[in-house]
Design a protein that fits this description.
Rossmann fold; Dna Ligase, domain 1; about 35% helix; four-stranded antiparallel β-sheet; 13 strands; D-amino Acid Aminotransferase, Chain A, domain 1; globular; 3 domains; 12 helices; alpha+beta
Length: about 350
């Protein structure tokens, strides 16, 4: 098949997406597909006149990428694009997608997980991987997904949605419950998340969230073990426990750096059969309630009483070879290349079911 793998973009999760997309592209090429990588934002500024020739590029335009210790400098990315347009989709991207049999969405964060690119591809009649526009938008919006959880009887920490200005921060810092988690509604990769313990830390957290937008979720802080459950083809894979580095949290550095700075990921998680059943059933329940399809990953806290507290569902979770879904798939006997191809085939089936074609 001719497959465009979209990555990069202009979100705070750009670097993670570049590694995901490059890894997926190489894996699909090894499976015999004509896969080619395209950066959603930078586009094809030096593209040949015949765009279809890109599918024959010997390296699939995969390039090399790695995840740095800090989030990307998006102003520098914008400045690097020769086509200085307000468009968040680069030159030639949609034209190349229209020549493909399928578009693999290796995107994370804004424009990728929020349903926007899915909607654009649907309007063009181009099949893509993962969930549809509406389910993607609801899953990424932490406030909306919390409402879906509550409506479906899924346990989640007490929360409230806030819209505020700089002038309102002192009053909020005096009155909001502590300890808590403060999260940007559409953030990911632990960017736009703070865990304040004091009034001073809460004020600082609220201040730090403002550049991401005016909406945040303030959530009760639950003490417990961090676990995640991938879903693939309407079935739960094994839960994975995430153990942050000593004295730290599962932040951007802990997620993507190795060694003493990185988190320890236990796959399968050392939990009881009852705990595994509870987590798996809840992940599937939320996957279906949100209307997600093909694959997802749901994050939990498991407290000392064995109660599972659902935090959020990820509709386009990381897909590097070292990511959590590939690890759980490997435990089920599904190799990385096979997993990438399986997602393509399941997605094509999902798109046919949705369109009736």
């Amino acid at each position: 098949m001719k497959i465009v793998v979209l990555g990069g973009g202009i979100s705070t999760e750009r670097q993670v997406s570049l590694v995901t997309a490059g890894s997926v592209c190489r894996a699909l090429r090894e499976r015999g597909h004509q896969a080619v990588f395209v950066d959603l934002y930078l586009g094809l500024e030096d593209a040949p006149e015949d765009l279809s020739s890109l599918f024959d590029a010997p390296d699939g335009r995969c390039g090399a990428a790695e995840i740095a210790r800090s989030a990307p400098d998006l102003d520098a990315v914008r400045a690097s694009r020769r086509w200085q347009s307000p468009s968040r989709i680069g030159r030639g991207v949609l034209e190349l997608c229209q020549l493909a049999d399928c578009v693999f969405l290796g995107l994370h964060g804004a424009d990728g997980e929020d349903g926007k690119i899915q909607a654009a591809l649907e309007l063009l009649g181009v099949p893509y991987t993962g969930s549809g526009p509406l389910a993607s938008a609801v899953a990424m919006d932490k406030a909306m997904s919390k409402r879906v959880m509550e409506a479906n009887g899924i346990r989640t920490p007490a929360w409230q949605e806030l819209r505020y200005t700089e002038a309102e921060i002192p009053a909020l810092a005096r009155t909001l419950p502590l300890p808590c988690a403060v999260k940007v509604v559409n953030g990911g990769s632990s960017i736009g998340v703070a865990l304040p313990e004091t009034r001073e830390e809460l004020a600082q957290a609220l201040r730090e969230m403002l550049p991401f937008g005016e909406r945040v979720v303030v959530e009760e802080k639950i003490s417990g073990r961090e676990l995640t459950v991938p879903v693939l083809d309407n079935a739960a894979l094994c839960p994975i426990e995430i153990v942050p580095p000593e004295g730290g949290s599962f932040d951007y550095v802990a997620k993507y750096q190795s060694g003493s700075e990185g988190a320890l990921e236990l796959c399968p998680a050392p939990i009881t059969a009852d705990e595994r059943a509870l987590l798996s059933e809840t992940a599937l329940k939320l996957h279906r309630a949100l209307g997600l399809s093909v694959y997802s990953r749901t994050d939990f806290l498991l407290d000392a009483q064995g109660r599972a507290w659902c935090l959020e569902a990820n509709n386009l979770p990381g897909m590097t070879p070292a990511s959590l879904i590939p690890k759980a798939a490997a435990e089920a006997g599904i190799g990385y290349g096979e997993l990438c191809e399986k997602i393509v085939l399941l997605s094509l089936s999902a798109r046919r079911a949705e369109t009736g074609r």
